Amino acid sequence: MWTRSSWLRLTACMNRRSSRPPRQASTSTSRSPSRSTALAPIGRSTEGRLGTVISMVAQHTTSTGQFIAPDNWRAAPEEAPGGALTAVGVHALDHMIEFAGRVRDVRCVTARNIPGPSDDTTTVMLRFDGGATGLIFCSVATATSFSFTLYGSKGLAEISRPNLQTLRFVPTSKQAPTGPVTAPPDEISEHPGFNMLNAELTEFARAIRECRSYPVPVDEVLHGMSVFDAIVQAARSNEIVAVRAR
Predict the structure, then answer these.
(1) Among 245, 233, 4, 246, which Cα is nearest to 110's?
(2) Considering its fold, how many domains does the chain have in total?
(3) What is the maximal distance between C-alpha atoms in the chain?
(4) Which of 60, 108, 197, 209 could be bridged to 235 by S-S, CB 3.0 to 4.6 A?
(5) 72-81, 135-144, 207-216: lowest mean pLDDT where?
(6) Is the pTM of this model over 0.85?
(7) Is 116 exposed, middle or buried, given 0-12, 13-18 or 19+ CB atoms closer than 10 A?
């Protein structure tokens, strides 16, 4: 069982490290082989197979909204603001911060498609300090699906399926088209049967036991919280909201 003392021990270990830990996302989905494989070619230089990050598009949907009991905390707008953001959208947000860095500002629109006290569908637009953009569509009112596509200057990488097992890479064309525009052959790899939640908790336990840095930097966690707050504010105000520093 993870307790407050466990978190304090982990934070103390991280603060004693002089070097910044690797950039990785903070949710169980960040441990999937497809995500790790997608991150590797991006790198932090122009030598990465994807090149410079241009934009990211993510969609994460489920049919769970219809089964949420009225007294469940997820049915309360004050406990789960931003429509489907807390249920599913936050995972895509973590990955976007992981790949593109800090978010400058956000715009958010929510909708209600299932009778209930809170919205169940959310669309978020993001602008990053580095120049990239992001689009997140999430809902708990439709069929279950997941896809995350990162568009780079040298190609695109797409992680798909609810268990994130499929990775597809498509390079950019090397020559001008002479007829209908077609894409170069894509590369598809499958990573089935991976327990993401188990991997996340195992890494967390090792970080505490061995007093080593957890893969998620504290400043990245805090920035993600600030972006979350900005998205909620944008949904309520129907305006573009700048992300505040913590």
Answers:
(1) 233
(2) 1
(3) 64
(4) 108
(5) 207-216
(6) no
(7) middle
**pLDDT-derived band at 216, boundaries 50, 70, 90:** confident
Domain, as residue range, for 160: 4-14+23-171+186-242
Is-contact 243 103, C-beta < 8 A? Answer: yes
Distance, in Å, from the CA atom of 83 to the CA atom of 89, rounded to the nearest integer, reads 9
Q: What is the CATH number of the domain that holds 197?
A: 3.30.360.10
The two tokens of residue 47 are 């030598």
Q: What is the pLDDT of residues 113-136, one digit of tens each?
A: 999 889 999 999 999 999 999 999
Does 180 map to a domain? no
- DSSP, collapsed to helix, strand or coil, labels residue 11 as helix
Distance in angstroms (rounded) separating the CA atoms of residues 208 and 197: 17
In the DSSP assignment, the letter for residue 86 is I
Give the torsion sign (CA, 52, 84, 80, 230). positive
Residue 228, in any domain of the structure: yes
